Automatic annotation (TrEMBL):
<dbReference type="InterPro" id="IPR037069">
    <property type="entry name" value="AcylCoA_DH/ox_N_sf"/>
</dbReference>
<keyword id="KW-0560">Oxidoreductase</keyword>
<feature type="domain" description="Acyl-CoA dehydrogenase C-terminal">
    <location>
        <begin position="241"/>
        <end position="379"/>
    </location>
</feature>
<dbReference type="InterPro" id="IPR013107">
    <property type="entry name" value="Acyl-CoA_DH_C"/>
</dbReference>
<dbReference type="InterPro" id="IPR036250">
    <property type="entry name" value="AcylCo_DH-like_C"/>
</dbReference>
<dbReference type="Pfam" id="PF08028">
    <property type="entry name" value="Acyl-CoA_dh_2"/>
</dbReference>
<dbReference type="InterPro" id="IPR046373">
    <property type="entry name" value="Acyl-CoA_Oxase/DH_mid-dom_sf"/>
</dbReference>
<dbReference type="InterPro" id="IPR009100">
    <property type="entry name" value="AcylCoA_DH/oxidase_NM_dom_sf"/>
</dbReference>
<protein>
    <submittedName>
        <fullName>Acyl-CoA dehydrogenase family protein</fullName>
    </submittedName>
</protein>
Length: 408
């Protein structure tokens, strides 16, 4: 009888042989998660192994080397990976954002060689954000023309999540006219350097620190101009990856604590029952956790299904799909505003089920709150709640592209 994770992988559409191998890798990751958090290092081989098994290509059609996963199936897979180790899901975030953009270009009739790279196991990383007090929307990383007809990229990024584990890095850069481009840069170009200087208290092994580009060389086909009037699809996908990761963390936290309660022999003299598992107050905390994770899963799935509806309509008529894109974006923002505080509250409340033994660093239960808080801080829900309210009251659209930086 297959293990529960194997059954989920099979149900999603993985062949049995690959499901077994992926399950083995995720089992190892889950067992090492506490040590990975403490040491701030994830074995890069696990990314390569999963990529070789087709994880990164699941959204491609079978004829193109993938498994033809829908978006709801993709986000269920990402939650499953996050259940083992949420660092890995965040590392792969940029890859799946890039994949969706490539697929959309392909559906519009373009020949996208990057999809063939993905089918062969290539992984894409990210280098978008720049530190400093520059004006929001300003991009200081520069694209410069070379005499040989190629281009060079120079600048420094931060929060370059996934780049240390990638084959290609998608870099946000500007040309001499200030136009913004998504530039696909060879991770192993001599002008690329990744620094493991991420010192955040959560998602410690994502290497989400600096990426430096010093004359990295690219060709014209590696430049993709960003449309200022683009729809909110990319932001929707980006946030759904984070939300799926948070759902996986919540589910792992609940499993970890439930296991501790079941095996716990110590209890309190003033408790209402002789065992923690039989205590009504402990049962209520676990029950609330089950509900919180279940509702979070459902919220992500609803937003993912709405995003899939948009994609299906977009293939037929771009003009008729606008309302569906807005609906998917709204549902994703609803999920973000609700899921973050719900799961963060769970990550604190579960410590009420036991005593000081739950604080042991060997158990690493604190990492779940730290990881949730880190992910939630990437795009604070309070600002998303405000624009939702503004949209309802004044009829404005939600921002489809946003930047951090100084407001003038």
């Amino acid at each position: 009888m297959p293990e529960p994770r194997q059954r989920t992988l099979l149900a999603l559409g993985f062949p049995e042989s690959k499901a077994v191998q992926i399950d083995d890798i995720l089992t190892d990751l889950a067992g090492a998660a506490v040590a990975v958090d403490a040491e701030r290092v994830l074995d890069p081989d696990c990314v390569k192994q999963l990529s070789a098994l087709g994880i990164g290509a699941v959204r491609l059609e079978p004829a193109d080397g993938g498994l033809g996963f829908s978006l709801p199936a993709l986000f269920e897979l990402l939650a499953l990976i996050a259940h083992a180790d949420s660092n890995l899901t965040q590392i792969l975030r940029a890859h799946f954002i890039a994949t969706e953009e490539f697929l959309r270009d392909s559906n519009r009739g373009a020949d996208v060689p990057w999809l063939r790279e993905i089918a062969c196991g290539a992984v894409f990383g990210n280098a978008t954000t720049e530190l400093g007090s520059h004006q929001a929307g300003t991009v200081n990383t520069r694209i410069t023309s070379r005499a040989d007809g190629k281009y060079s990229i120079s600048g420094t990024k931060f929060y370059a999540t996934g780049s240390a584990y990638a084959d290609w890095i998608q870099v946000l850069a500007a040309d001499e006219n200030g136009s913004h481009y998504n530039v696909t840069v060879d991770r192993f170009d001599g002008g690329v350097a990744i620094d493991n200087d991420w010192d955040g208290f959560g998602q410690r092994a994502t290497v989400s620190g600096s990426a430096r580009f010093d004359g990295a060389v690219v060709e014209e086909h590696q430049l993709c101009r960003i449309d200022a009037d683009s729809d909110p699809f990319t932001d929707t996908v980006a946030q759904l990856v984070h939300l799926s990761t948070m759902v996986g963390i919540g589910a792992r936290l609940l499993d970890d604590v439930t296991e501790q309660v079941r095996s716990r022999e110590r209890h309190y003299s003033h408790a209402s029952e002789t065992t923690a598992a039989g205590d009504a107050q402990v049962q209520e905390i676990i029950g609330r956790g089950i509900a919180a994770v279940s509702v979070s899963k459902s919220s992500v799935r609803s937003a993912a299904e709405a995003t899939q509806d948009y994609l299906d309509a977009h293939r037929v008529s771009r003009s008729d799909s606008t309302q569906l894109a807005e609906r998917a974006h709204h549902l994703t923002n609803h999920a973000q505003v609700v899921i973050a505080p719900l799961l963060l509250a769970l990550a604190g409340d579960v410590f009420e089920v036991g005593g000081a033994s739950l604080l042991s660093s060997r158990m690493g239960l604190d990492r779940h709150w730290r990881n949730l808080r880190t992910l939630a801080s990437h795009n604070p829900a309070t600002f998303k709640a405000r624009v939702l309210g503004e949209s309802a009251l004044l009829g404005t659209s939600l921002p489809s592209v946003w930047y951090s930086g100084r407001r003038e």
